[in-house]
Amino acid sequence: MEFLIAGASGVSGRGATEVLERAGVKVITLSRSASGPGKGPHVQADLLKPETLLEQKAALKNVTHVFYAALKPVDDPAEEARVNGEMMENLMTSLKTIGAPVEQLIFLQGGKVYGAHLGVYKTPAREDDTRHFPPNLYFTQEDYARTLPEQGIRWTALRPDIIIGHSLGSAMNLGNLIGVYGSLCQEMGVAMQFPGSDAAYNALVNICDAQVLGEAVLWAAQEQKEGPFNITNGDQFRWRHVWPKLAEWFDVEVGEPQPISLQNRVNEACAERWNALAQKHGLKESNVDQIALGSFGDFIFHVERDAVFDVTKARIAGFNAMKVRSDECLLNHLGAMQERELIPGR
């Protein structure tokens, strides 16, 4: 088994790389970056330029499994669907041209497939729920994936919700954002108030550790699973139960829910303050935008309806790694950020 991970520099790609390498699987990472997160070979290519993939024939000729976690956000939904569909198809077509013996495509979906980006959807979401009114990039990619069995290639769609793990330069890293926000509160001596509404503070939510997602990638490949599967930590929680524990980790008061824009305040108003904090504590990244963007939190912390997935299908199919306490997942992530010298010590 030889895995190619497309979009390896993101939080999900990095998590899968770590899990697969620990399991002894040969991993090739692929992204537009000059280097990848793994110990094995890295391919620098642009999925919108097939010629850059064909140039890598020697590195890709033995790929048997693909984990597709690449994403190109575009404001217009129709254009986003077109571009991301083209990227996936370019990769699979190029591998076929190269002659790689691909057996399975495992690709990343998420809450957006259910309409989470629209602020409300049927909950708990199940894999057989009807699609929302299109377009949606995941619909385009899945429709393409459904044609692959004609070529003898299995397809599996993994649907995690709010992935918590390490990455830099990602637009959707909630764990890092909490780390930055809490560190600024700690530095300024202010309460770490929940930056959303009271309704969002009390809504039921779930998240997914990047390591759990990585285990799902390995499981889907080893067990030759096909079709879509929701993947989360396995529990559900309300921010009002978890947020005080996060504030306690930073040794600050928790305060009350107070809706603010983290993008405006953390990434704009406090950008220089973060730079000074990073210099003061010798942190490895002084550009706050490279650690996390507040815009993702501005959406997540303002969702006022329950946003949870039903993971029964994956459990029945034999995936047994969804047994992580989400409060512990978030606290462990803060500890990892501290070890990586991305936030100050407590």
How many discrete domains? Answer: 2
* Computed CA radius of gyration, to the nearest angstrom: 20 Å
Q: Order of strands across the biggest sheet? A: 3-2-1-4-5-6-10
Specify the biggest β-sheet. Answer: 7 strands, parallel
Tell me the helix content.
40-55%
Proportion of residues in β-strands: 5-15%
Q: Could you state the CATH homologous superfamily of the largest domain?
A: NAD(P)-binding Rossmann-like Domain
**What's the CATH class of the largest domain, please?**
Alpha Beta
Shape by Cα distribution: globular
Question: Are there runs of 5+ residues with pLDDT below 50, and where?
Answer: none
The CATH topology annotation of the largest domain reads as Rossmann fold
Describe the protein's architecture and organization:
With 346 residues, the protein is α/β, with parallel strands linked by helices. It folds into two domains: 2-161 and 210-231, 3-Layer(aba) Sandwich (Rossmann fold); 164-207 and 236-308 and 318-339, 3-Layer(aba) Sandwich (Rossmann fold). Helices cover 42% and strands 12% of the residues. It has a seven-stranded parallel sheet with strand order 3-2-1-4-5-6-10. A two-stranded parallel ribbon has the order 7-9. α1 packs across α8, α6 packs across α15 (326-339) and α10 (262-269) crosses α11 (271-281). The chain is globular and about 60 Å long. The model has no long low-confidence stretch (mean pLDDT 96).
